[in-house]
């Protein structure tokens, strides 16, 4: 498959981004939203780092 790497990166991004968008509509406090966004970003960066390190 030609775009296997890009597809897997997109799926990983969506896995982390989906909860962030669901939390933004809910009744959480601004602190909880900020922490969720920060940890989702860190999770994406860590996943990308580990994924690219294995190559």
Structural category: mainly alpha
**Main sheet specs:** none
Order of helices and strands: HH
Distance between the termini: 17 Å
Compute the number of structural domains.
1
Q: Radius of gyration over alpha carbons? A: 14 Å
Low-confidence sequence ranges = none
Helicity range of the residues?
over 70%
Task: Count helical runs.
Answer: 2
Mean pLDDT: 73
Shape: elongated
Topology:
Elements: H1 4-25, H2 30-53
Summarize the structure.
With 55 residues, the chain is mostly helical.
Describe the structure.
The two termini are about 15 Å apart. The chain has one domain (about 15-55). It is about 85% helix and about 0% strand. The protein is an all-alpha fold and about 55 residues long. Helix 1 packs antiparallel against helix 2. The mean pLDDT is about 75.
């Amino acid at each position: 498959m030609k775009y296997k790497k890009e597809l897997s990166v997109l799926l990983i991004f969506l896995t982390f981004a989906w909860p962030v968008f669901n939390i933004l509509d809910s009744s959480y406090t601004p602190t909880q939203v900020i922490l969720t966004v920060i940890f989702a970003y860190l999770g994406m960066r860590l996943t990308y780092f580990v994924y690219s390190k294995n190559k």
